[in-house]
Amino acid sequence: xxxxxxxxxxxxxxxxxxxxxxxxVLGLLIAIGLEQTVExxxxxxxxxxxxxxxxxxxxxxxxxxxxxxxxxxxxxQSDADQYVEFLQAAREHRAPSAYPAQFIMYTKxxxxxxxxxxxxxxxxxxxxxxxxxxxxxxxxxxxxxxxxKAINTSLDRRTAAMLPAMSDPPTLPKLIQTGQPPAFDLSIxxxxxxxxxxxxxxxDMVTSRQSIKWNxxxxxxxxxxxxxxxxxxxxVRTFNDAMHVYQQGGTAALLAKYPLxx
Length: 262
Description:
The protein has 262 residues and is mainly alpha-helical. The chain has one domain (14-257). Helices cover 73% and strands 0% of the residues. It contains six helices and no strands. It is elongated, with a radius of gyration of 31 Å.
């Protein structure tokens, strides 16, 4: 708040009057200038803190994306092996063998900094092109986050479809309590149950592939933003290129072209 104090004595002449007015105006201008300077440096500090927090969240998401890609690859391969066994067994008119499923711990990408900045209005501090770039980035983050529900749903269906093949059903409560996977004997499944189990494994395989896709996209666009890209076109080009590189050579090729920041 600005305080304006009256003169200590009355103005006796027009000159004194204008001097008093000029003094008041000058004082107001100085006070306003100081207030705006303090506000400017405060906003500047807030902007630097926001950028640092977004950068740290971005680094974390690169590691999360790589972990999710690795886990989804293991799960996709396990599902593929089981699906192939279902098909070969049907063609050879025999009971299929049950392969142990790979269960992954899928980590949600981080988005707390972005969410808090949206809710607090701190995003207004960002230059327009930066805000647009981060908006595209966190749109991809949201798609990767949405994979959690899809993964859990497909895993539940796979588990439920395989349960009728448990070789020792009475042990199920204990296995659930300890988190151990049950043993399956697929030879006891009816043809209908076999089809349900095969379809559930196939769905889980597709879900794992979708998880890989969105985490590769996330890695690519996060890498671009962390390395200074503020062009929407450049961000899209980078995450599409990241997918192409991954498809050609896997995670090793991805890291060779887009290495983790030190």
